């Protein structure tokens, strides 16, 4: 038994040395990746079996030597009773090992469940600190780690949101008459998504996409973008490039998957439901869902905003145009949801005034 535990103690630095050598030679780590080869329960049972039965066996052996005058049936009867005692000792040892292993497994499973939850992206999890031994320190350390990760995640989300807002504000700042356009389009788009029952994650992605839907206009010359009055065909062709330019700009951001979910909506927000839009001439449900929602919000804000060369329309007039164009220019279902919402808000405002 002593040799066994000494071997267990000695093998760990050997394994560490082998792992380090393997990393240096092959640039890979040797690890079980959480795979359990021998469970704690098995270890406890085997150890308790040895600890519980060895003294009984030694006692039986010594008693046999001391009682060497007992022979024949007396010796057989003795060993029958010794066997019974030995079996009882084994059962008791295994039962005690089971209780001990359970007391160890429970806090381990608690922390494992918490780790699985964190691995799935849930930073609101925590392990119940209901232990009075060293496991209390372990649980407290785990909860402290999760709280730190949660704070860092919140901070990263705030920084990312500020990043999107800053890009949108920088774009809107090029034209004093369109200031706040991206923010308003994002707000309208989110309202459409919520009315259609989209998930919280989808709403968040829609908001980010809508904030950056016109980011490609950074690549359009001021003489064209800020021109007062009607654009020539050539100038309008330049404007029509901004969805593709926006997609290309966002593709430059690393890591590549950070903006992947935003690209379809940015590229497609000027597609028409009847297939006469740009840049790809998509129609119906082939147009990405984000693009269909942003197109409605973008059109409504454009119609109701003031320009140097014209006064913005009333909300009701803009809603009437949306109603006429649903099914041809805009998604009929999403458009009707938005129209109903805005008209309901208009009635509420009238009653309040």
Topology:
Blueprint: H1 2-26, H2 40-66, H3 73-119, H4 134-172, H5 181-195, H6 200-211, H7 222-225, H8 233-239, H9 242-251, H10 263-268, H11 289-304, H12 315-325, H13 332-352
Helix pairs in contact: 2-3, 5-6, 5-11, 5-13, 11-12, 12-13
Structural class: mainly alpha
Number of DSSP-assigned strands? 0
Average pLDDT across residues? Answer: 82
Main beta sheet: none
**Count of discrete alpha- or pi-helical segments spanning 4 or more residues:** 13
Helix content: 55-70%
Write down the overall geometry.
elongated
The H-and-E topology, N to C, reads as HHHHHHHHHHHHH
Q: Uncertain segments of ≥5 residues (pLDDT<50)?
A: none
Radius of gyration: 36 Å
What's the end-to-end separation, in Å?
Answer: 88 Å
Strand-residue proportion: under 5%
Give an overview of the whole structure.
The chain has 13 helices and no strands. With 353 residues, the protein is mostly helical.
Question: What would a concise description of this structure say?
Answer:
The chain is mainly α and about 350 residues long. The protein contains 13 helices and no strands.
Could you name the key traits of this structure?
353 residues, mainly alpha, elongated
């Amino acid at each position: 038994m002593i040799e066994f535990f000494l071997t267990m103690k000695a093998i760990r630095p050997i394994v560490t040395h082998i792992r380090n050598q393997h990393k240096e030679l092959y640039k890979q780590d040797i690890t079980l990746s959480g795979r359990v080869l021998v469970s704690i329960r098995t270890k406890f049972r085997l150890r308790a079996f040895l600890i519980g039965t060895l003294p009984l066996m030694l006692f039986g052996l010594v008693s046999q030597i001391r009682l060497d005058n007992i022979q024949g049936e007396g010796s057989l009867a003795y060993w029958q009773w010794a066997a019974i005692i030995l079996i009882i000792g084994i059962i008791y040892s295994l039962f005690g090992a089971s209780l001990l292993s359970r007391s160890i497994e429970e806090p381990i499973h608690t922390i494992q469940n918490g780790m699985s939850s964190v691995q799935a992206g849930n930073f609101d999890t925590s392990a119940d600190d209901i232990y009075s031994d060293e496991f209390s320190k372990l649980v407290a350390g785990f909860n402290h780690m999760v709280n730190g990760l949660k704070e860092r995640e919140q901070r990263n989300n705030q920084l990312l949101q500020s990043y999107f807002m800053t890009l949108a504000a920088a774009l809107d700042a090029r034209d004093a008459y369109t200031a706040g356009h991206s923010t308003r389009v994002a707000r309208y788009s989110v309202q459409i998504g919520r009315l259609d029952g989209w998930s919280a994650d989808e709403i968040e992605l829609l908001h980010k996409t809508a904030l950056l839907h016109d980011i490609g206009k950074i690549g359009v010359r001021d003489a064209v973008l800020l021109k007062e009055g009607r654009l020539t065909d050539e100038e309008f062709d330049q404007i029509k490039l901004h969805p593709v330019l926006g997609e290309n700009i966002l593709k430059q951001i690393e890591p590549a998957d950070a903006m992947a979910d935003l690209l379809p909506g940015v590229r497609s927000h000027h597609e028409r439901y009847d297939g006469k839009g740009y840049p790809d001439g998509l129609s119906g449900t082939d147009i990405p869902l984000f693009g269909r929602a942003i197109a409605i919000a973008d059109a409504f804000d454009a119609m109701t905003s003031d320009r140097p060369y014209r006064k913005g329309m009333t909300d009701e007039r803009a809603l009437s145009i949306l109603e006429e164009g649903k099914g041809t220019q805009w998604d009929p279902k999403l458009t009707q949801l938005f129209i109903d919402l805005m008209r309901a808000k208009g009635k509420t405002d009238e009653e309040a005034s």
